[in-house]
Amino acid sequence: MMKTKSDWWLGLMFVLVMASCGSGKPSEPTDEEQDGDSTLIDETLTEEELQDELISEEPMPLAAEELFDDFLFNFASNKRLQMERIHFPLVVASDAKADTLERDEWQMEHFFMHHEEYTLIFDSEAQMQQVKDTAVSHAVVEKIFLDQGFVCQYRFERRNGRWMLEGMQKQTMSLNPNASFLAFYRRFATDSVFRQHSLNDEIIFSGPDPDNDLEQMEGVITPDFWEAFAPELPRGVIYNIVYGEHYGHSNLKIFALRGIANGLEVEMTFRREHDKWKLTKLSE
Predict the structure, then answer these.
(1) 23 CB-contact burial (10 Å; exposed 0-12 / middle 13-18 / buried 19+)
(2) Buried (b) or exposed (e) across 178-192, using 16+ Cβ within 10 A?
(3) What pLDDT score was predicted for residue 51?
(4) Tens digits of residue pLDDT in 204-250
């Protein structure tokens, strides 16, 4: 059975709870156990390292190769798998030069796994369907440093049915295809006055009915009522995943917030008119 994001997260939490529920100091292993079990966990490990050790013992299901999201979750959680799925020496290109990273220089990259949610940027609703497209064999994970104004891209390829990290690209944010929107979003997330001026006169809204969790409500909200419906906007570092080869400039952006294991699902649609971006739709 393929392990989804929530399956992995709940499984990890179960393992950690079971590990913390032992009674006092663990018993000393016998000589036979010391000789036959090389997976004993060092008690001096940090909590993050302990999680890496525990998850690294779990093999990745073959089905997780089908969808890039399933592979990425495993890749970002499993240190052993991550080291196996990087093409070393890894070429790291920048605006000015290209370097290489050797295996012993690599540091575990968890991407957004230590956060409650991650972000995605799409050019259309049709493009969003590629997340579930098993034919996708090329993907780029973007780690976007809004404050510093640069983007680190991780390029993955699926060859012979196996996803591999094939290269990295570091670029200034102004060179990214989403440069205009990213510059706008950086200010939209941090400047309340600018944000208010960047709201459309009427914002199409759909979301859960506060009086009935099982029902959805739809309607229109105005800028005056934005704060009552507004989601918490991530700042500093955000992420994007490009599925497939497409990557063009567009006057429409769907900024999606996806929860890791909390069911969060928020989509904000922005449109650019006369070089100005405005929020036109909010779906929760």
Answers:
(1) exposed
(2) bbbbbbbbbebbeee
(3) 62
(4) 999 988 788 788 899 999 999 999 999 999 999 999 999 997 666 89
Residue 87: pLDDT above 50? yes
5: which 2 tokens? 């994001």
Sheet holding 162-172, edge to edge: 98-101, 86-93, 162-172, 150-159, 138-145, 237-243
Amino acid, res. 145: F
Predicted local distance difference test score (pLDDT) of residue 55 = 60
Long-range pairs for 174-182: beta carbons < 8 A, 24 or more residues apart: 174/149, 175/95, 176/142, 176/144, 176/151, 177/247, 177/248, 177/249, 178/121, 178/240, 178/253, 180/249, 180/272, 180/275, 180/277, 181/121, 181/253, 181/270, 181/272, 181/277, 182/144, 182/146, 182/151
For the beta sheet containing 276-283, the strands, ordered from the edge strand earlier in sequence to the opposite edge, are 117-122, 252-259, 265-273, 276-283, 199-209, 212-221
Supply 226's token pair.
């934005």
Give the per-residue pLDDT at 36: 41
Q: What is the mean pLDDT of the chain?
A: 85
Nearest C-alpha neighbor of 2 from the set 51, 84, 83, 58: 58
Instruction: Report DSSP letters for 52-72, one per residue.
Output: HHHHHTSPPPGGGGTSHHHHH
Which pLDDT band, with edges at 50, 70 and 90, does 178 fall under?
A: very high
Query: Would you state the pLDDT for residue 33?
Result: 40
